[in-house]
Design a protein that fits this description.
The protein is α+β, with helices and mostly antiparallel strands and 225 residues long. It folds into two domains: 14-132, no CATH class; 143-222, Ferrodoxin-fold anticodon-binding domain (Alpha-Beta Plaits, 2-Layer Sandwich), CATH 3.30.70.380. It has seven helices and four strands, in the order H-H-H-H-H-E-H-E-E-H-E. It has helices spanning 14-38, 46-66, 70-80, 92-109, 113-132, 156-166, 198-206, and strands at residues 143-149, 167-178, 183-192, 214-218. Strands 2-3-1-4 form a four-stranded antiparallel beta sheet, covered by helices on one side. It is elongated. 20% of the residues are buried. Mean pLDDT is 83; it is low at 1-8.
């Protein structure tokens, strides 16, 4: 009986493996630092950034395993199809970074080292430029106003009169019954008039909603809700 161990790696050596995984680590870590530097919102996750680095190396490993073998590729797809991810991605931008490190892993795993380096540098520069010059920003700051009122009377007209005085535009987004029907919550998107402060708006609304809760969320387009 032949007990010799056969190396099935085929066309790559230990040096190739070390180079691919090391380069995947370095480039994925660089992407992680770019993500950390350009992150704006409050939901920064160290675990997410570490996952980016791990994912880049794993994809590189997977590409080394698969190589040009179609059977291995289909077997790998079947094995990975049982994995389910439950965490919701809060920003579409985060998905872009996931695909970026996947591309880096694929390039290093298939030993397109120059492509991996050039693509990482180029895409990272684009991200930094967009962050530095704030590309595609909407210079109109809006607020979300939530007003809770008793359900036994029509407070909508009084609330809207206050919004007319304090805002340049507003729109009723939703009207919802809360606390088992004990209160009604009105939600508006508004744009505060020049010189008007959120605190003054809260005070004015509080005078017309029977002392119920008033909430003003400012800059909600840049904040995780």
């Amino acid at each position: 009986m032949n007990l010799d161990v056969q190396d099935l790696s085929g066309t790559f050596s230990v040096g190739d493996i070390a180079l691919a995984l090391s380069l995947a680590f370095v480039l994925s870590a660089a992407v992680g630092w770019v993500y950390r530097f350009t992150h704006r919102n409050v939901s920064y996750s160290q675990s997410y950034v570490q996952t980016l680095v791990i994912l880049g190396m794993l994809i590189s490993l997977i590409m080394l395993v698969v190589g040009s073998n179609i059977a291995r590729a289909f077997a790998l797809v079947g094995a990975l199809s049982v994995v389910r991810f439950r965490n919701a991605i809060k920003e579409t931008r985060d998905v872009g970074f996931i695909f970026l490190v996947m591309g880096v892993g694929m390039a290093t795993g298939t030993r397109f080292y120059t492509l991996a380096v050039v693509a990482t540098v180029a895409i990272s520069l684009v991200i930094m430029v967009m962050y530095r010059f704030n590309w595609f920003a909407l210079n109109v700051q809006r607020q979300v106003v939530k007003v809770q009122v008793p359900p036994d009377a029509d407070y909508t007209a009084a609330i809207q009169d206050v919004l007319v005085r304090f805002t340049t535009e507003f729109e009723l987004v939703s009207m919802e019954s809360i606390r088992g029907g004990a209160l009604t919550e009105l939600m508006y998107t508004v744009r505060l008039a020049k010189g008007r402060e959120p605190g003054a708006l809260i005070t004015a609304l509080g005078e017309h909603n029977a002392g119920q809760r008033v909430t003003v969320l400012t800059g909600y387009d840049q904040t995780d809700l």
